[in-house]
Write a structure and sequence with these properties.
Elements (H helix, E strand, L loop, with lengths): L17 E7 L3 H12 L4 E4 L6 H4 L30 H14 L4 E2 L2 E9 L2 E8 L4 E11 L20 E2 L12 E5 L3 H12 L3 E6 L13 H9 L4 E4 L2 E5 L3 E6 L2 E6 L2 E4 L7 H7 L3 E2 L4 E2 L13 E3 L14 H4 L2 H15 L1
Parallel strand pairs: 1-2, 1-6, 2-3, 6-17, 7-14, 8-9, 8-14, 9-10
Antiparallel strand pairs: 4-5, 5-6, 11-12, 12-13, 15-16
Length: about 350
């Protein structure tokens, strides 16, 4: 029998904490993994250090997806939206409703501290936001932790100042202030445009000679035109070398520059939690840190540990999104079923 706790946090009378599959991460891919395994007849629990779809929750509040709603669907549940491309808030509502529909056992605000054991007998040690420890047991693990929680740090003086942010949320607090945006990809371009349109004085700093070619086709000309018109100041082929309470020091092709500054958005990308995977025993290959993983089953080199979502691509975080990562759950459920049949 399986220990079950519903979405409201109420525990059932069956208190045995044994599961066929424990999913680390309750984002769209993690939810899809749980749904597919549950539909295949397996007992499943999800553990997340934040809320359901924690990364999506921390996206900019007015964000619109680059893709259509049907490409974000999981569990064969339609994603209705009045817009051609859904918003962040619509997606959060959709995934909440899907989790409720499937009665998924989601342990929110539970951080996985360490994992012990082997296939058939994994022990997962957790800690809640009050520091209380917990233990869960599972026969198999699926790791769907994404990458948005770990920003790529610049390693420069002043990066620890409170004025420096690695996530962009809302433009309103930066009205009539001097803001530096570091980066040249989608997130940096979008932040720079929104901040400028809401009254901030924006400077964009990018180490390359031009805005990244992969910036969305309707955003790239917009940011380039704002730069050309002088509405957004841009330092290309440049980098920030120090941040002070009142300024940002740059290294540019014309030499060192110091510009007045109130806030910095260092949107320099993010990376998967490689240390967490290494602690489990997952091996990596090549400069892109591709995890050793069976392409058909998504089982890693550690028997019983499956990988799902963007972490399958290592540091190549622009290869897997919700649109294709959502199907990983089917592969894992099929692999678990095949193992059961062989047993």
């Amino acid at each position: 029998m399986t220990y079950i706790r519903n979405m409201s946090g109420q525990e059932s009378r069956d208190m045995k904490r044994d599961f066929d599959l424990l999913v680390v991460g309750a984002g769209p891919t993690g939810l899809a993994c749980a749904i597919e395994a549950q539909r295949a007849g397996f007992s499943v629990v999800l553990v997340d250090k934040g809320c359901v779809c924690n990364s999506l929750f921390h996206y900019p509040s007015h964000m619109t997806f680059f893709t259509t709603s049907e490409l974000l669907e999981i569990g064969d549940i339609p994603f209705p939206s009045p817009h051609a491309k859904p918003t962040r808030n619509e997606a959060l509502e959709y995934y909440r409703q899907v989790a409720a529909y499937y009665k998924l056992d989601v342990r929110q605000y539970q951080n996985v501290e360490r994992i012990e054991g082997t296939q058939g007998d994994f022990t997962v040690h957790t800690k809640d936001r009050f520091g209380r420890m917990g233990v869960l047991h599972a026969s198999n693990l699926a790791v769907a932790t994404g990458y948005y929680d770990l920003p790529n740090m610049m390693g420069i003086p002043g990066e620890e100042l409170s004025k420096v942010h690695h996530y962009y949320d809302d433009p309103h607090p930066y009205f009539d202030l001097d803001v530096v945006v570091i980066g040249g990809k989608n997130s940096a371009a979008i932040a720079a445009l929104e901040l400028w349109r809401h009254g901030a004085r924006v400077t964009l700093v990018h180490r390359e000679a031009e805005i990244h070619r992969h910036v969305k086709y309707w955003i790239k000309p917009d940011i380039e035109n704002r730069i050309k018109a002088g509405e957004i100041t841009a330092y290309l082929s440049s980098r920030v070398v120090e941040i002070t309470p009142d300024a940002v020091l740059l290294e540019t092709p014309e030499g060192p520059k110091s510009i007045h500054n109130d806030f910095v958005f260092a949107l320099t990308g993010y990376h998967p939690d490689f240390e967490f995977l290494e602690a489990i025993g997952v091996r990596f290959e090549g400069p892109d840190k591709l995890p050793v993983c069976d392409e058909s089953t998504l089982e890693s080199n550690v028997p019983g540990v499956y990988l799902a979502g963007v972490i399958v691509a290592g540091s190549r975080t622009n290869e897997i999104f919700i649109e294709n990562g959502r199907f990983h759950g089917r592969q894992i459920a099929a692999a678990l079923t095949a193992k059961l049949q062989k047993a």
